[in-house]
Every structure is written in structure tokens, then in C-alpha cells.
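Hey, can you fold this one?
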Amino acid sequence: MLLNKPAGLTSNQALQKVKRLLNARKAGHTGSLDPAATGMLPLCFGEATKVCAFLLNADKTYRVTARLGIATDTADADGSEIATAEVPALSAGQWSEILQSFRGDSLQVPPMYSALKKNGKRLYELARKGETVEREPRPIRVDEISLLEIAGNRLAFRVHCSKGTYIRTLVEDIAQKAGTVAHTARLHRESVGGFQAADMLDLTSLEAAAASGADALRALLLPPDVALEGMPQVSLEMLTADRFCAGQAVPAKPQGFAGLVRVYDVAKEFMGVGELSEAGTLAPKRVFRTGEKNP
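Sure. Predicted structure:
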């Protein structure tokens, strides 16, 4: 399920609300959004929680609004002001050039207000105590970045980037390159992997569906293999598929590559995710029981 997370909820709070509506036993989300952020939060229930790990690696697209001239300790609008600076009078073309300079691979230092751990402690826990510790730069990739609007001290842009990219830090780095400071005023995630904004559902719609009955709400769930459409697929004969589902490595037709694949039986029933060797051996990585009715 693709939730359009509202502002003011943590990702886990949003997950728990939908989990209660579904009366689900197992639930997980793929990639946290800050409480102030809105937009796409893929939620997985029941057997579908097995795809969470694969979606964590997906690229993401954000619409970002930055407030120029003011820096905050959290790098977003929830933080306290820590610095101000003049905003340079740059043209839209000059801002576009600055944005384009961030395309490609680079190293990014994660913010102190993040859930990353240092010596067993969450960075945000240390930050709340006024502590600052050294953070190792992490590789990120910006595939596309485009200017949407520049109006006074407001800069809006869209960015398509790799997993692990901190948009709050990107905003600060963009401002620094322009000779000023900034913080993220609004952040909306538009897509995760192949999922698009048009497929999102808001909490109000889900609550209305739940009021109509469990079947109406469950009808909104997506099959788990939809999240894996970027993977190649392999089909297995029934007896071989049974062995795969029992956790055994099985022979499969070589595909000319090695890596993760979606696995189906001859009836096109989704079996799970396997790792295919170049020689044609298929080892199970995640096996799905798609006949399970109650998540």
C-alpha cells in the first residue's frame, strides 16, 4: 500500500494507524520520512513485509521547498534558528546552474539530527544533548535535479536521487554553494522506485474504506511482486517451484547474468525472490505464501 503520509506523524505512527485499520499481524514501512515531511510511504503487511528490504534500496523523487537565509539546528522548519545570511540576488538561470552542479555521484555527510548510530547511540539523541560527533561521508547519487521556482527567499526544486540521500543536507549544501544558508521548509516525496504519486492513498480514504468493511480496505492492497517489477523474472515448472518454496536451490534456465530475480510458477503465481547464478542455479532468498488472506 502506498500511503500519502501527512505532516505531523512519524513514519511508524502512520504505519501503526494503517496496521490497526487492517487488523494486520505483521507490518513494516520502507524508508522513513521525517515527521514534518509528506508523501509516499510504502507500507507492507503480512507476507509483503518480505519486500521491505528490497524497496529500501529504491531511488526516490522529492519536491523540495527551501527557505533561504535562515539555518536551523535540525536543518528543517521544526528546528531552532542558529544562523542567518543575506540571500544573493541570483537569476533563475544561475540557481539552475548551482542545482545542476549536484548531479552525479558524491559524498554527503549525514546530519546530526538523523537516526544513524554512532557507538550505539542515535545521532539525534546526541544532538538533543548538544553534542556533535564526527560522521563519515556516505556515497549518494543525484540523477535529476531541476528548478521549479525561485521567489524571494523561497527556492523550490525537484530531485531524483539514490537511497540514503539526506535532502536537508542537500539543501544546506546548495545554499552554501550559493553563498548563503538555508533549511528545508517543506519536503514531499513523490515516488519510490517504480511507484508513482497517482497511486498514493491518504489516511482519510483508508479510514473511509475501513468503515465500509475489511474487504473494501483489503481491496486497496497491492500484490507484493508489484514492488519488485525492476527485477527480471524466472518461471519454474511446478515440481521445481515446490522445491524452491521448500527452501532448496533448484536448476533454472540460464539468463546470461547473475543476480536477484522474481520467481513464478507456470500458473504465474508469485513464488518469491531468488538469486540466479550464471550457471543457472536458483537459490531462494525470500519465499512468499501468496495464498495468505489475512496480513
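The chain has three domains: 2-57+195-223, 63-171, 231-287. Let me know if you want another pass with a different chain boundary.
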